[in-house]
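Our preliminary data section would be incomplete without showing what the modeling component actually yields. Below, a chain of 272 amino acids is followed by its predicted structure, encoded as tokens that our downstream tools consume directly.
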Amino acid sequence: AVVSTQSTGVGDTLTSTFTITNSSEISLQYGNTLLGEQRSTVQSVTGDSDYGNGNRSGVLPFFCTPHSGTIEPGQSQEVSVNFRADHAECYRDVVIVKLLNQPQETRIPVSARSWNGSLYVLGGRSPDPRVSLYNTTGGEDATNGGDKDGEGGDDVAGDIWVFFNCPGLGVTVTETLEIGNCRVVKPDNKGAKLTGDYALDPLKADYGPLVKALVVTPPKGVVEPGNNITVTFQFTPPKELTETQIQFNTLLTLKGETLEQYRVKFVAQIIG
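Predicted structure:
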């Protein structure tokens, strides 16, 4: 089993659970620890280890309650996996569950992601939060067709890349992005506006036939707290296209606790 606490804001606590069931005829004593508790150093989340990225305070981002206990025959115990981060990052660890006087152990990977703002974007190509489509290095664009730059200027928070591998002209290819809202309804924020809004600008007219070649569904919307919206991009390369690789850009505006804009960079490669 894998326990994922999904996404939350920096400083907020998010909880998921797993259940231990005693199907034997005797009482069972259990205890759980985190793999991160057994290590003196925390490796990068992008490495091959089962855990990574700790809080800057030194406090582990994951903690379980209860830590130990006794389960009577035929009974179950729900264990909460709590996550609280002090900076925006991807996190993961492993909960190790052991039964008293038994050599076997059960390992349960846990993962979560924290964000500075209430709205966030994940690439639809992979659900793994270690794979980011953000490029804030300002590197050169890999494109043969040229880049009509200027969308958003220097005020954008970063770039989001969406790649289309097109088998031929006139053939539609679909990619997606996930826009989520990591805010949660709590007793102390009742009555506050917790929803967030997003909007994708239409392509500029000077992109010519590419304007009609890209269909975005839905181009704007409201994201409820704790929910995600899938935005679908359908691209059909125009038959009059002569380049084998083109790039075109637009702006994505996220309005949650803060207002952020990202430059969405579409790269289409004609491989047929």
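The two ends are 41 Å apart (CA to CA). The chain has one helix and 18 strands. Preliminary results of this kind motivate Aim 1 of the renewal.
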